[in-house]
Amino acid sequence: MTGMSFRWIPSNPSLRSSHYLPRSESGFPLPPSPPTWRLRGHLLPPREEYGPLIAIRSGTEKIVIIGRYKAAVDIMEKQGGILADRPRMIAAEELLAGGLTIGFAHAGERFRRMRRALHMHLQPKAVEAYQPLQMSHAKKTVLNILDELYNFLNHTGTIERVLKAMRPGAYLVDSIPWLKYLPWYGRELKRGYESSKRLYIRQLNHVKQQIQSNIDVGPSFAKYVLENGHSYGITEIEAAFLAGAFFSAGSTMTSMATCTVLMAAACFPEEQAKVQAELDSVIGRHRAPTFSDQQSLPHLQAFISEALRWRPLSANGLPHRTTKDVIWGGYCIPAGTTVSGNHWAISRDSEVFPEPHTFKPRRWIDDQGRLRDDLRFFVYGFGRRVCPGEHVANRSIFINSLLIFWAFQLTLDPGALLDDMGYMKGDVQRPCSIQFKTRVPEAELRQMMQKHSESDVA
To answer: Which of 92, 295, 334, 403 lies at a 20 to 30 A Cα distance from 326?
Structure first.
């Protein structure tokens, strides 16, 4: 590895960097820092040179980037309470989100209230209620592929706006906060907030009307928060943003993850064939797969895990902020420091993932042929800020991947050039061009996908 990509580094004229930042008040030194010129092009130096932690400054802001698996676990997981806060992100949090989204919320009572509401509804056992809906959507996806209608990334515009607004240096207001009070500044961000607010309120009101009309809305977080939000002290506008973000972020990230899995299948046909051999052995081709097959398909689950390690959904996760000093490896990360786990670098840690640049689903399988429970990748973030919808997302990614692998053989479009690194644009991945060939006679496949029965539920 000659360097590690990190797109969240600020391109700020006040960026000040030397080989090492000063010692902290604790007496322990801050993590090492590369020279300024090494940061150009958003490329950091080899981890072997600077170790698992790298520190930089942007004006008065201290930033620490974590690039190794053990450091991420020790700091961001085991000391997650100290890193549960977010740094102030004026463009993303205050202007674009109106200070209402849980993802950007600072640690405190309001964050805990919203988090409790989500957790109660999204416990692993509770999310089983979503399985019929997820199965129905997955079957429609297969039918849309047959009809050449499906676009996995038709909602990426919103997430791209958020990710752009998160980047320090993208908006001057993050360095000069008083700009937010100028009526002409950040108009596109303010319009984005108003647009999201109208959409989320309209969606919540629609569910409210259905409830009042005694219409069965099925499993719905919007319904849950309308009926139970008062017990968590959640206001109606908070409920609208909580439910809206749950839907929009969940559907977008699930689509992105499914795209990544499909690209990996097309790029590595031998590994795809191994998964499909498992599907043929467990399921055959005369019935549609269901959630009840999951525990019998370790190789499919390993393939999904490896795909999301091979090409992380984002090179960098959301930044955290320390509320106390963190001492690790002889270094001090002072209170008030912005800390970010570099997903790309962590996924390339050869101590945990030997041959990290090789696509090896087998690394997730133990000697008994079972899915390993001692290895994980941080697809959904770290510690107490891990995405609360991860269990729903995992089930959606699994059932979509299962049905598509079972129904189709995936190949790259020979008429389209593949650049699986160029496939990542900014912080949001883009799909390569994939061709689908049915593995089941099309008439039978359509009939099975159009049939909805109790067998859809595990």
So the answer is: 92
